[in-house]
Amino acid sequence: MRHRMIWAPPLAATAAIVGLLAAPPAGARTASQAGVHGTAPVIVRPTPWRVVYTNRTGRPSLRGIAAVNSHAIWAVGDRPSGPFAAHWNGRGWKTSPIPHPRGFNPQFISAPSDSDVWVFGVLPSGHTSAVQWDGSSWHTVTLPSDASDLGVVFSPSDIWLVSDLHACSSGSGCVTAILHWNGSHWIQSFVRTTSVAALGGSADGDLWLIGMNKIHRVGDQTHAEMVGFRWHHHAWRRVARLPRIEVADTPSLTVTSARNVWVSALRARRRSNGEQPDLGVHWNGQRWTVLTVPDNLADLGPIATDGGQGLWFGPDLHWTGRKWIEEVGRWLPSWANPFAGVGISHVPGTRTVVVAVVSAGGTLIGSNRPLRA
81: how many CB neighbours lie within 10 A of its CB? Predict the structure, then answer.
């Protein structure tokens, strides 16, 4: 039986699980049914995925996962008793509570190193706050009042966050503020986009932003023109060669280097059969390539590189750079049904990828390979 991963943002994960209770099971597909531009083969094979961590105590729900290396993986979650962290140290997992401001609701995690882990969340006031692990203890970090919970951390003195502030005018369009902590103070820059969908990179010199312009409603969907920007010294510059694509959902972004950037998006334009294809848009340092995901083999959500030029669209589907591999088989326990994915992360220096899963029966982490130090 095939476990098809449904992706959901942290606050919507529970609703997604409830919705799955009424959803029919996904049918299996064969290699002859789909391909990239009708040429790349789809190989069906038994899934290599396995469960490496479970937590069923106190109604837990994971919110995100970040891999530092093969002996340092962090995940953050929440439950009625408060936020918690799950940490792989190369030998085993340890779950521990996170000291936090009152009402702190964790949303995402960024881990530049094993001694520099950041969890961003929302307070009851609507403002964003953060807690940081410095290798020995957790500390609450006060953020600007306009900071959102979308960003990336490179070090304690190099933090980038999207601001909630944006402005539009009929003559010059819209701009959104971006906040940068340089170790002593916050610096504000502006990017010409109506909304920021994703922000990521490997360093300040390799920082990318995916925005959404011309946002409008079409039925029950929000459509927009996907645009890209890159940070150049002191300003954001438009990525001129990024393919012009109208999307029907919020794109995802993952960056491993200036020569390996991936964006996943749901194309707004429908096929003749009424379906909207998922896309993988790849920059190899010289040109952009647009891959069309085979029909019904992936759901739009977080993506992770495979340690090479390939990409994981969740645990169900892997693009190797030459072919599609559909992973088929049961690897989740019976209590994890229905379920939803909330995060996926590549373990640097390896071919290992880990995924965070929530379900009505508990929460778990899966891996495509055995975890080793």
Answer: 11
Mean pLDDT of 322-327: 93
- The amino acid occupying position 29 is R
**pLDDT for residue 76 is more than 70:** yes
CB 276 within 8 A of CB 295: no
Return d(Cα 132, Cα 117) in angstroms, integer: 6
Three-state DSSP class for 238? strand
CB atoms near residue 137 (< 10 Å): 8
Query: Rg of the Cα trace of the chain?
Result: 20
Q: Confirm if 25 and 35 have CB atoms less than 8 A apart.
A: no
SS3 at position 79: coil
pLDDT value of residue 6: 56
Q: For the chain, which residues make up each domain, given as ranges?
A: 10-367
Name which of 246, 161, 174, 249 is nearest 209 in CA terms.
161
Type of residue numbered 49:
W
**What stretches of 170-203 adopt beta strand conformation (E)?**
173-181, 186-191, 195-203
As given in the structure block, the two tokens for residue 41 are 């083969």
First to last CA, the chain: 31
CATH of domain 10-367: 2.120.10.70
